[in-house]
Amino acid sequence: MAAGSGSSDRSLEDTATWAVAIVCAIFVVISVVIEHGIQSLGKWFQKREKKAMFEALEKIKAELMLLGFISLLLTVGTKYVAQICVPEKLGNKWLPCEKDLKMLDDDKGKGGHRKLFTYAAQEMVWRRSLAAGTDNYTYCTDQGKVPLISYSGIHQLHIFIFVLAVMHVFYSAILVALGHAKMKKWKAWELETSSLEYQFTNDPARFRFAHQTSFVRRHAGIYSTPALKWIVAFFRQFFGSISKVDYITIRNGFINAHFAPNTKFDFHKYIKRSMQDDYKSVLGISIPLWFFAIIFLFFNIYRWHTLAWISLIPLIIILLVGTKLELVIIEMAQQIQDRATVVRGAPLVEPTNNFFWFNRPQWILFLIHFTLFQNAYQMAYFLWKWYEFGITTCFHEKLYAVMIRVFLGVGLQILCSYITFPLYTLVTQVSFELFNAHSMHE
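Structure for MLO-like protein, as requested:
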């Protein structure tokens, strides 16, 4: 028994050099491949003159570097943090899992799930390895206190940071991929603007009643009632968000406001560049988002159900943002109808910031950024808890509630990436402020 224990926690002095070299080589090769892949992607963006996408990639690299520094500091400071001792009474306050319930979970030991006592026993070997034969891991216990964070706790925090980084990069990739998929659908509409049928339908010499135009018929009329407008806008983000007539009308209004009439302008290409500029704002983890992550960890207390109610935040935000953006389109149609009874040629919308909350369309982008991080954070937290403690522990008291939150988070990510974010990019083209911002990057 002792021999087995000694062989499992031996140091590098007692480890074969070929084993050390192989493990080191594997990690080096994986790191080099990832770095080379990122550099190749950056060179491809530069070659294709995708400046905004290259800057977005740089933000992701900066995020990974920051998380790497955090991990490095945790590694270097493990010994010193674990030797910060606090009274046991204070250390047992505000626990994420009730101690009695934790003991019960250990006793159950359901098949297929790691028991916490077994996990603790395995981690003790890791602690002793870190201690390098010393008794540092009992430093606080010998004083009748408990460590601020134990060796194994810091190790688990390491894993959480890694999972968070992977999930945020993965969710960012989903946002980019689905956003570009939506753009391909709009490209077909842009090509139609060069057809003879389109030019005949939007002949500048043609007069029509405003309420007879396709755009006004789709969004005005009975929808002029405030309460009904919000209801219609809420459901339209799921069914029929951004039709061809919406795209064409916003396109015509944009060209008429910023260029000479009948100018041949590739609006789809401009929208694509605008979306790439927006990627720089929604990718990466900003200081306010780090603050939120810390607040969540602070208030993740047993029976407070923090994870349950905080999962409602991205749901409320993304539905509210999607509804507001659809409502902006309805207000555009109402503006056309109120401005003139008869329109000449294509119906035009006038760029203004008044459609948006506090006349600040960029605030919507921050809410989308927050939702992206929130979804990635919740998924990372779920996967980390599952990996470290199993799926049926006191951290996940009701499995069905956990699975609902997981599927809800995935659904919200798809909704945000494929509908809400592209919708924001298109609708905000009626904003003078964002037009000037995007023009500086041309």
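The chain has two domains: 1-46, 166-439.
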